[in-house]
């Protein structure tokens, strides 16, 4: 049985939840290709970096690579295998991310994984109003749900764009809302130096410290996307360098779609992903040796008839598992994602997300980005999908719990009590566990057939719609020191008066 846990204050009645926390995976990740095949992909990526190289558009990044011994010609940076190995040696295999609430700080690496909510879509969607541009008020509602869902460990970097706010100062209001409405870990934005510095400064205010003092305290995590194939642009380079210099966590994530931005073969796409990830990881260690960094895997295929991305496919699942092997080969913590190309919260969304979840988590991911709420190939954040994904995550957490085989678990006394031809409904062994299960948030209210009939045959999407509305109505913002909130407000006002961040 899964571990029991009571309802937290403010949790919606009828919305079963596990307590907040991480379950440490105790069995080995999937190994779907041989060690020789992993080495072949790694060696091919090293050859690519040493010969063709990576186009780096930032002069600052070029200078850093050159000072570390890379060969830089015009905008092309070539990395010798020895330089790559030297810099990989300083990457920490494990680290902890501080949260505003110390009880919600997170372990990353080893058997621990962080589930982060969807981040970055352009649109928001629910059953009542369909897909649309999002507003700041709706974004705050989404954050409150993320706070309320115990299985979500981290907010994923702004659920969707609040289009009613000016683009050059929007990030300031987003960061302030993340701090106000969450006491969990949250992700920052890394598009350019100014936005990245604002996130770091506001995280420092949140913890009553200074940006310089955060250098040895990983608090923020930010996604750095390379421009596949083989390019690192100026805004992403600036974000990477700024995060690394302040001791914060970069997640280097190539977007390698086989047949579009990468070779059509899965092996070729993974070679490209691995090369680009290595180039970014090396740069973080040049900036600050020993700074935490992650290997981001986001390889999938495309629909060759339309050119649109395909997610939750067998190719995506296998790529996630192999990416985990590649990350372990170089000793760097691994990020993967829960994704779907479905346009609605329907059966396609469910099976693609389940395939993606299975690939990512059995592949040993330490960060599951977009763990809940992703829809429409990443263009849309869905309130209903947030709830359904959270339920799937709870199932995965139960799956990863240790498998007990003590004398009571082997149940010889229960087998004897039932006897030949008997049943186990009334045995003492069953009844003792029934009493626990009755109060267990993982199995309470799971009389699916009766509940479906009693509710008039509502769909999962309709039920999720009712659940998120109930949870939102009962949500309570975590306490925030008024002096901290005032200091944040002052910072936001000053930065807005200065013009915010340039549009990159």
Automatic annotation (TrEMBL):
Gene3D superfamilies: Trimethylamine methyltransferase-like. InterPro entries: MttB-like_sf, MTTB_MeTrfase. Its EC number is 2.1.1.-. The keyword Methyltransferase applies. Residues 1-20 are annotated as: Disordered. Keywords: Methyltransferase, Transferase. Signal peptide: none annotated. GO terms for biological process: methanogenesis; methylation. Residues 1-10 have a biased composition (Basic residues). One of its GO terms (molecular function) is methyltransferase activity. It holds the Pfam family MTTB. It comes from the Bacteria. Coiled coil: none annotated. The keyword Ligase does not apply. Belongs to the trimethylamine methyltransferase family. This is Methyltransferase.
């Amino acid at each position: 049985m899964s571990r029991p846990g009571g309802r937290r204050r403010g949790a919606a009645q009828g919305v079963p939840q596990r307590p907040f926390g991480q379950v440490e995976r105790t069995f080995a990740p999937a190994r779907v290709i041989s060690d020789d095949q992993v080495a072949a992909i790694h060696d091919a990526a090293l050859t690519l970096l040493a010969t063709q190289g990576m186009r780096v558009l930032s002069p600052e990044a070029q200078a850093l690579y050159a000072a570390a011994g890379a060969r830089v010609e015009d905008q092309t940076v070539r990395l010798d295998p020895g330089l790559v190995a030297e810099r990989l040696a300083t990457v920490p295999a494990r680290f902890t991310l501080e949260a505003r609430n110390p009880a919600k700080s997170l372990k990353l690496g080893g058997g621990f994984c962080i589930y982060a909510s969807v981040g970055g879509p352009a649109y928001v969607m629910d059953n009542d109003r369909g897909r649309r541009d999002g507003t700041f008020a709706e974004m705050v509602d989404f954050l409150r749900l993320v706070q309320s869902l115990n299985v979500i460990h981290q907010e994923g970097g702004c659920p969707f764009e609040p289009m009613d706010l000016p683009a050059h100062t929007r990030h300031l209001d987003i960061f302030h809302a993340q701090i106000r409405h969450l006491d969990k870990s949250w992700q920052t934005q890394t598009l350019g130096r100014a936005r990245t510095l604002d996130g770091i400064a506001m995280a420092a205010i949140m913890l009553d410290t200074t940006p310089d003092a955060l250098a040895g305290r990983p608090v923020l995590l930010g996604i750095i996307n390379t421009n596949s194939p083989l390019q690192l642009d100026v805004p992403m380079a600036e974000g990477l360098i700024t995060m690394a210099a302040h001791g914060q966590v970069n997640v280097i994530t190539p977007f390698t779609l086989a047949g579009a931005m990468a070779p059509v073969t899965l092996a070729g796409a993974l070679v490209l992903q691995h090369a680009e990830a290595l180039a970014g990881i090396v740069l973080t260690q040049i900036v600050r040796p020993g700074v935490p960094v992650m290997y981001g895997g986001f390889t999938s295929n495309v629909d060759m008839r339309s050119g649109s991305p395909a997610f939750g496919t067998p190719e995506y699942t296998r790529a996630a598992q192999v990416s985990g092997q590649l990350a372990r080969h170089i000793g760097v913590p691994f990020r993967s994602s829960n994704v779907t190309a479905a346009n609605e919260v329907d059966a396609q969304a469910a099976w693609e997300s389940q395939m993606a979840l299975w690939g990512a988590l059995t592949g040993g991911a330490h960060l599951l980005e977009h763990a809940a709420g992703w829809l429409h190939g990443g263009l849309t954040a869905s309130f209903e999908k947030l709830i359904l994904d959270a339920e799937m995550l709870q199932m995965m957490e139960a799956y990863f719990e240790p498998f007990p085989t003590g004398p009571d678990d082997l149940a010889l006394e229960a087998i004897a009590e039932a006897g030949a031809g008997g049943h186990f409904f009334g045995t003492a062994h069953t009844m003792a566990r029934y009493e626990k299960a009755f109060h267990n948030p993982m199995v309470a209210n799971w009389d699916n057939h009766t509940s479906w009939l009693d509710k008039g045959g509502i769909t999962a999407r309709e039920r999720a719609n009712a659940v998120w509305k109930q949870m939102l109505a009962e949500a309570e913002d975590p306490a925030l020191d008024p002096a901290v909130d005032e200091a944040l407000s002052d910072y936001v006002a000053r930065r807005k008066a200065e013009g915010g961040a340039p549009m990159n």
